[in-house]
Amino acid sequence: MFLSVFDMFKVGIGPSSSHTMGPMVAAARFLATLKASPFHAHGLRASLHGSLAFTGVGHATDRATILGLAGFEPASYDHDKAEAALAQIHATRQITPPGFGALAFDPKTDMIFDYGPALPGHANGMILRATDTEGDVILEETYYSIGGGFVLTAGELAAGAASAGGSPIPYPFETAAQMLEMAGKSGLSIAKMKLENELVFRSKAEVDRGIARLWEVMNNCIDRGIAGEGILPGGLKVRRRAKGIYDALIAERGLNMVAPHTINDWMSLYAMAVNEENAAGGQVVTAPTNGAAGVLPAVLRYYLDHVPGASTSRIGEFLLTASAIGGLCKHNASISGAECGCQAEVGSAAAMAAAGLCAVLGGTPEQVENAAEIALEHHLGMTCDPVKGLVQVPCIERNGLGAIKAVSAASLSLRGDGQHLVSLDVCIETMRQTGHDMHEKYKETSLGGLAVNVPNC
């Protein structure tokens, strides 16, 4: 199993990797399929199913799908151009993807929310269609947005298609036990094994540039979030809080009365800054998803800004280690809130961040695995119940607490020798089973939990 660090961490837009980025990616794939087909399309249609339908408006899934069909992609998204394109589509009831002529598309009738049963493959399903001049379907494809911006067609999902693959890699671990065994035999750290796998597909310089770009986007997102003010979109009237927290923390610096636990406020600040940006539709990095995008950058920023002896030269080690753990979570369970609840998003993110921090603080592979297990274990059972379908409540604060748990997990693991009762593999399998048993209303449908017990208007 090989999942690149650049698959796990992807530059995109908020508010959701599965509900915003995924549908946009699916639409781009559909356009490519249509362009390669012998059919001459006159119009396009899209239908959203399962969680994509139930929380699609709050997650801007309809908007993302339409923009994807217009040729926009997450990594190169331009907000001003997107707004102009949407206005044009609504005014003309036509959509003009690059390489195509004008195609009929009325957002009011051709963008369908199907609130019936979910499609059979996954909770996040969508069907894209091309039609002829008579309105008959000439091309149809079903896509599943399986979390973290990953998208599979129905055929790929049924065949068990894996993201990335092809060439053999030197360290093909599929479980944490295999990972530790390979580390023991090779004498390499988890990050170095991950790097050797990456070098099969790209040069060291490309890996270094890519990792530097990921951290640049993450760090810039923190800074924008700290500077941002006002009310987040969506109707809940949630105030941005990061700037106020930052100003208060700066004002307290140098005062003898500052409590040691104030460091938790810094970690929460960094995470909340990212997730406020995400909620506003800003540029973020999936880590492993948008809803959990603040945990890992917060922990890495905590390391760089608050840990004595921290070095930017170890950012790559942090992200490579974290991506290895994230790959195990995705491969053996899920990183999708619609599939396994928030344990799969913030829980996986905390495990990844704990592992990365443990590694750069000098942890052995066994201690790194232990750190990941501790962080994930104490998120097990966490539901995904966003109020009004928005990635705001409880998501923003939840990222802050996830970062705090990750740092605590790394610290606890470093106090031991890596030997522990519950393995990471057992913990990941427990997450999978728990997610399978979890009622659908607690899995990103906004039909249970806080979503129905908190007034949302």
Keywords:
2-methylcitrate dehydratase PrpD; 60s Ribosomal Protein L30, Chain: A; 457 residues; two-stranded antiparallel sheet
CATH topology of the largest domain: 2-methylcitrate dehydratase PrpD
Rg for CA atoms: 22 Å
Compute the number of structural domains.
2
CATH architecture of the largest domain: Orthogonal Bundle
Order of helices and strands: HEHEHHHEEHEEEEHHHHHHEHHHHHHHH
Largest beta sheet: strand ordering: 5-2-6-7-8
Strand % is 5-15%
Instruction: Name the CATH class of the largest domain.
Output: Mainly Alpha
Tally the helices: 20
- For the secondary structure, the number of strands is 9
Label the overall shape: globular
Estimate the mean pLDDT confidence. 96
Largest sheet: 5 strands, mixed
Uncertain spans: none
Helix content: 40-55%
Instruction: Note the gap between the termini.
Output: 45 Å
Class inferred from helices and paired strands: alpha+beta
Describe it:
The chain has two domains: 14-159, 60s Ribosomal Protein L30, Chain: A (2-Layer Sandwich); 176-200 and 202-453, 2-methylcitrate dehydratase PrpD (Orthogonal Bundle). Helices cover 51% and strands 10% of the residues. The chain has 20 helices and nine strands. A hairpin with a 2-residue loop joins strand 7 and strand 8. The protein is globular and about 70 Å long. The N and C termini lie far apart (45 Å).
Write the layout of secondary structure elements.
Elements: H1 5-8, E1 11-13, H2 17-36, E2 43-50, H3 51-54, H4 61-69, H5 79-92, E3 94-95, E4 103-104, H6 107-110, E5 111-114, E6 124-131, E7 137-147, E8 150-153, H7 154-159, H8 176-186, H9 190-198, H10 204-227, H11 242-252, H12 262-279, E9 283-285, H13 295-306, H14 315-332, H15 337-340, H16 346-360, H17 365-377, H18 395-414, H19 424-437, H20 450-453
Parallel strand pairs: 2-5
Antiparallel strand pairs: 1-9, 2-6, 3-4, 6-7, 7-8
Helix pairs in contact: 2-4, 9-14, 10-12, 11-12, 12-13, 12-18, 13-16, 13-18, 14-16, 16-17, 16-18, 17-18, 17-19
